[in-house]
Amino acid sequence: MTPELKARFDEAVRNNKIVLFMKGNAMFPQCGFSARALQILQQHGQVHTVDVLADPEVRQGIKEYSNWPTIPQVFINGKFVGGSDILMELEERGELAEMIAGKTPA
């Protein structure tokens, strides 16, 4: 991963409360897992989305950045949370809202 790409990831994660690296975008998700993650997150406020399909370097780079092999990937309050399965579990347990509010560590 180039230093420039890492800086782009750092900036997105640092400057946005909720970041979703997804296939497609908020208007047109390109996979069911990305759509589900977006739907869950939008209930909790503004979501900054990054379309990994628009740039192959971003698609591969985010996997290296987070050390997580699949897309979508969620970052909350600057910390990596996981993918759509983890997000759904957090939502079902009522922990996602607390995490977004900064009441529990991500």
TrEMBL record:
Molecular functions per Gene Ontology: 2 iron, 2 sulfur cluster binding; disulfide oxidoreductase activity; metal ion binding
Which positions bind [2Fe-2S] cluster?
Answer: 31
Keyword Glycosyltransferase set for record: no
Q: Which residue stretches, if any, does this entry annotate as coiled coil?
A: none
Q: Per the database record, which ranges form the Glutaredoxin domain?
A: 18-81
Give the SUPFAM superfamilies listed for this entry.
Thioredoxin-like
Segments crossing the lipid bilayer: none
**PROSITE patterns (UniProt xref):** GLUTAREDOXIN_2
**Which keywords, in A-to-Z order, does the entry hold?**
2Fe-2S, Iron, Iron-sulfur, Metal-binding, Redox-active center
Query: What CDD domains does this protein map onto?
Result: GRX_PICOT_like (cd03028)
Q: Which PANTHER family did the record assign?
A: GLUTAREDOXIN FAMILY MEMBER, GLUTAREDOXIN-RELATED PROTEIN 5, MITOCHONDRIAL
> What's this protein's family per the entry?
Belongs to the glutaredoxin family. Monothiol subfamily.
Q: What is this protein called?
A: Glutaredoxin
Q: Which organism is it from?
A: Archangium violaceum Cb vi76
Taxonomy of origin reads: Bacteria, Pseudomonadati, Myxococcota, Myxococcia, Myxococcales
